[in-house]
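Supplementary Note 2. Why include the ligand at all?

Several targets in our set were suspected to adopt different conformations when bound, so apo predictions alone were not considered sufficient. For every target with a known small-molecule partner we therefore ran a joint prediction. The input for 2-acetamido-2-deoxy-beta-D-glucopyranose is given below.
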Amino acid sequence: MRCFLAVVTLLIASPCWSYDRTFIEGANNNLGEALQFLREYDNEASSMCTRVTEAQWLYATNITEQNRKRMVDALSLQAKLDRVSWQKVIQFSWSSLPDPMARRQLQMLALKGRAALPQEKQNELAKMVAEMKEIFNRARVCPFATSASSQCDLSLEPELTRIMAHSRSYEEQLHAWKTWRDATGPKLRSRFSRYVELANEAARLNGFRDAGEQERAAYGVDDFQSQISEVWSSLAPLYRQLHAYVRSRLRKHYAIPHRLGPTAPIPAQLLGNMWGQNWKNILDLVLPYPGKRRADVTSEMLRQGFTPLRMIQISEEFFTSLGLKPMPVDFWHKSLLERPTDRHVACKASAWDFCNRRDYRIKQCTEVAMDDLQTTHHEMTHIEYYLHYADLPYVFRDGANPAFHEAVADAVSLSVTTPKHMHRIGLLNNITDDYETDINFLLEMALDKVAYLPFAFIVDQWRWQVFSEGTRNMNTAWWELRSYHQGLLPPVARSEDDFDPGSKYHIISDQPYIRYFISLVLQFQIHQALCTAAGHVGTLHTCDIYRSREAGRVLSDIMSVGASRPWTEVLRVATKGSASGLDARPMLEYFKPLSLWLRVQNRDERMIGWVTTDQDTALYEQWSRGSASKSISHLLSWAAPIITIASSYTIIR
Ligand SMILES: *[C@@H]1O[C@H](CO)[C@@H](O)[C@H](O)[C@H]1NC(C)=O
Ligand SMILES: *[C@@H]1O[C@H](CO)[C@@H](O)[C@H](O)[C@H]1NC(C)=O
Ligand SMILES: [Zn+2]
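The joint prediction is reproduced in C-alpha cell form.
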C-alpha cells in the first residue's frame, strides 16, 4: 500500500486507500498545533452552521426574495470559511499525525469539497450549478390538450408529476415525459460539460483521478465499485421478476402489442414517475388482490381526532419506548408542523440540526393521514441521530457514511409501516395476516424499493463514466445504462442534442446519488439487526421493534458514533459481527415471500428480463457502432465486473 504525497513522498500504512494517490499535504506535523486548529475550526464551523441553517430555515418557512438574499449571503460566508479552513488543513502533514481522531478529522476536511480550485474557477463552478438549477426550476411546458386559451405554464411540481402519476393515457404520459426533457436537457448540456471540467479539475488538484473518484472516497472502501456492482447483481433477479410481472400487467392494460411486446423493455413513461424510478403510483394497475387492499388507518386517525401535534407526540413515544431521547424544549417551540396560511413555505418534510446542541426542528406540512404519520417517524429519526452525536466534534456530526442517516430513518419506517405496529398504537383493530394481504403489502413495498434499485444504481454509474471518460455521447451512454439495468426504453427517439440525464435534479445540482442505492440496501441490513436484537420471530417484513430496549441500544450505538468511525465498523457492531459491508441478503429475505409469488405469476411469461433489439437501440444510438451487444459489453467493462454480457441478463423460457 503506497501513498504519494505532494509535498513529502512517504511510505505509510494506515490512513489511505490501497491505490496510488497524491494528497495535498504540508510539512507541519506538530500535533499540538493541529489540535489547536481543530478546536478553533470546531467553534467557527459550528457557529457558521447555526447562522446558515437559521437563514435557510427562514427562507424555507417564509419564501420571499429578501429571505432568499439573506440565505445566499450566509452561504457565501460559509464557502469563504470552508476555503480558508482548507488552506489551513493542508499545511499539516495530517496523514502522519499520531492521534487517530485528529487525523480522521483533518483527512475528512482535506479531501472533500472543491476548495483546491483557484477562486475564479470556484466562482465559475458555483455559477454553472446555479444557472442549471435556475433553468431547471423555471422550465415550463404546454399541456397535452391545447386549446386557444391554454397556457404553457406546467411545471414539474406539481402538474407534470401528477400527470405521470395519475394519467393512464399512453399519449398524455408521453407528452409530459418528452416536453419536460425538451424544456430542460438542451439548455443544460453545455453548462453541464463545463461543470464536468471544473469538478474534475478540483478533484485532480486534490489528488484524485477525477471527480467520481473523489465522490467514492467518501466511503473509504478500496473496491467500492465492485462491491456495489456485486450487490446490484444479487438483487437484479428480484428486479427482473418484478419487471416481468409489471410488464405483463401493463400489456393487458394498454393493449399495445406493437409498443410493448412480451420480451421488450418497458416504455419509460408508463411507470407512474417522470424517471421510472418509483412505481408505486401504478399500484392500481398491478395490485395482486384488489379485494384485499391494505387497511388505510387515515379514517381511524380522523375518527380519533388526531392532530399534527398528536402525531408528533406518538412518534416521540415510539422513540422513548425504545429507551431513546425525548424531543428537546426548542423542538416543541420552534418546529413547523402545519402549513401556515400567512406565507409561502417549502412543504417538503425535513429535519433540521442548528448545530448548537440545543435547537432541533422538524418542518412538515402535516396532514392527518397514514403516510404523514410515517413521515413524522422518519423525520424524527433524523432528530434522534442529531441528538445522539451532538457531543462529537463538528466534522463527525454526520452519518457514518453519506447513506447512513437515510438508511436508519428508513429502517425505522420499516417497523412503523407494518400493520402490526398500527395495531399496537391503536389504529387498527383487526390485523388480517392472511397470505393475500401480505403479498399486497410486499408488492407495494417492492414498487417503492425494488423498482428504485437500478435507477439509484445507474445515476452515478453514468456520472462517474462522464467524469472519467468525458462528455462525448453522454446521452447514448445514459440510455445504454437505462435499457441494460432498468429494462426501460425512451418512448421516442433521442439524440445527442438531447440531454436526458438533465431531467433529473440531482444531476444538474451537483448532488451525489449513489447514497440512495446504498441506503436502499443498508436499511434492510439495519432493520434486520434491530429485529434480531428485539428477538423478533417470523418473517422479516412483519417485524416491529416498538418497545424493544434492545433494538433501541443498537440504534443508539449506531447513532452515537456519528461519522467518527468507519461505517464498516459501525455496521459490524450493529450486526454483532455478522456484516461489515454492504449485503443484499437482508433485502432479499424481506421480499422472499413476494419473490416466490412472482415466480409463480411469471411462469407463463416468455421471458424474465428483456431483449433490446437493434430497433430499440436505434432509438438512442445515432451512430452505427457495431452490434448493440458489443457496445454494451464495452460499457460494462468498467461498470459491472460481475455481469459482462447482455444475454446474462435475460432468462428465456
Ligand atoms: C416573511 O419574511 C418577510 C421578510 O422578507 C417579513 O417581512 C415577514 O414578516 C415574514 N413573515 C412572517 C409571517 O414571518
Ligand atoms: C374487523 O373484522 C370484522 C370481521 O371481519 C369486521 O366485521 C369489523 O368491521 C372489522 N373491524 C375493523 C375496525 O376493521
Ligand atoms: Zn430522510
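Strands lie at 4-5, 22-23, 266-267, 350-353, 360-363, 488-489, 607-608, 651-652. The first helix runs from residue 31 to 60. Comparable summaries for the other entries are listed in the accompanying table.
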